[in-house]
Amino acid sequence: MSTEPGVAGSSARREYERRKAKDEEELRAKWGRFGGLAVALSDERQHTKSWDRGAIGEERLGARLNALAADGLAVLHDRRIPGSKANIDHIAITPAGIWVIDAKRYKGRPELKIEGGILRPRVEKLLVGRRDCTKLVDGVLKQVDVVRDLVGDVPVTGALCFIEADWPLIGGAFSTQGVHVLWPKRLAKVLLEQTAGEVDVARTRESVASRFKPA
Predict the structure, then answer these.
(1) What is the pLDDT of residue 38?
(2) Quick check: is 35 in a domain?
(3) Which of 13, 65, 82, 139 has the fewest Cβ atoms within 10 Å of its own Cβ atom?
(4) Which CATH number do you get for residue 179?
(5) Sheet containing strand 131-132, strands side by side
């Protein structure tokens, strides 16, 4: 049924298993009767391993979000974007609006770097462990636009949730281009505070679930 919440990380998990099987098949073909030994002794390819890491991150965040689900808060996981191979990791529906959440299991400290200002155009960059990850913000904004186009006048907010990042003991969360950048516990707190609004959570959940099918 379209109203099922979906399984967090399921499409990433399937992609990991597909890539792992393909890598093993190639090794067996290359090494013939020593194929089994080659598979046992070989490390997983980095790109294959990244799908496993991503799936674990989505699964962990999904479990936390599921624990929040109640009459005033609904969650959906791993939803396919219509007409695309891409998916949305998590969608939360609160009385105040819809949250589109992208889960990332990156190492390093997320921080906002601001360039320009008075004489030059202001540019905001998302850095994670000093790597420029601004493209992640762009990705969330695209997902927000897709959801907004399909739900009409219900407020839609984007969030990037870093599962195992090096967050400071005090502070750390920030917003860039309207996208919240935070960690699971902080995200849960923010979502639970979204009580002031007139969104019919159950009806909106049904509507969103019917438009964004499980991936």
Answers:
(1) 67
(2) no
(3) 82
(4) 3.40.1350
(5) 110-115, 123-128, 131-132
